[in-house]
Amino acid sequence: MARRSRLEAKLSDDQFNGGSGGQLAKVLQPETAAVRQAAQPLTESEVAKIVAGGIELTPEEYELLLDHQNSKGQLWRSWLELPHPNGSLILPPTVVKQKHFKLGDHTFSCFSTRHNSSGIQFKSPDNPSVRLTGFIQEIWQLPLQNHMQTFFLIRKHKLLPPALLQQTPFPSLSLFQTTAVDAEPSNQFCIIEPTNILTHLTFYHRPKGTYGINKRILVLCWALNRGRRN
User: The pTM is what?
Assistant: First the structure.
């Protein structure tokens, strides 16, 4: 145990990681090495190159992301609000769009790329105690304060009216960690970050008439979480 502790301390040492020991650290602690590397701040030229090569958000997407950033207690300005006072936090208008994002041992995907891994349960960005479900529409990465940040554009699931939900067995079977929602896409979107994600969903398309409901529904289950993220 003592030898292991000394080795872990050595692997965490900056001087050790700066030389040939850095290669050993990447082999023995690949996740730690990756996190350390990712935490390195970007240079101004790197930021400029990423922003210039990114894909421009639509005005609606940009406003949604700007509102999300401002909801966290910092004042971010639109890039269109010229002139910018010195020291202002300016939200870039472009992003790098990804098809997948790995969080721990799990890969989350955009709806258009891999439908089955795009359904998630997540903590509401407005109230972390509230659990919501939806599909990942897009995955965005962009440099903020010289660090790459990841955001997810989520299309929330369309809830069934309470009376229709009561026609399903799930309200009385809470241990099943399952519910039903409308199969029709909603028009409600939100922005979340990796820390908001709880788990993948398993979901089943059920035809019109299931449980006596006169519309198509989705049956959602979040038991894959097994209480690991909360």
Answer: 0.81
Which residue matches tokens 């992003």? Answer: 95
**pLDDT surpasses 80 at 30:** no
Classify residue 214: in a domain, yes or no.
yes
Q: How far is CA 50 from the centre of its chain?
A: 20
What is the model's pLDDT at position 40? 87
Q: Is residue 115 part of a domain?
A: yes
Q: What is the C-alpha to C-alpha distance for residues 32 and 107, in angstroms, rounded to an integer?
A: 18
Longest alpha-carbon distance in the chain:
67
Residue 82 confidence (pLDDT) above 90? no
Quote the DSSP letter at residue 33.
Answer: H
Whether residue 168 lies inside any domain: the answer is yes
Contact 141, 131 (CB under 8 A): no
CA distance 172 to 149: 40
How far apart (Å, rounded) are the C-alpha atoms in residues 53 and 97? 11
Q: Structural domain tally of the chain?
A: 1
DSSP state of 85: P
Averaged confidence pLDDT in the chain:
86
> Quick check: is 179 in a domain?
yes
- Supply the CATH number for residue 106's domain: 2.30.30
- Residue range(s) defining the domain that contains residue 217: 95-225
| Helix, coil or strand: residue 174 | helix
Q: E strands within the chain?
A: 55-56, 76-78, 89-91, 94-98, 100-103, 106-109, 119-123, 131-144, 147-156, 158-159, 178-182, 189-192, 197-200, 202-206, 217-221
Single-letter amino acid, residue 91: L
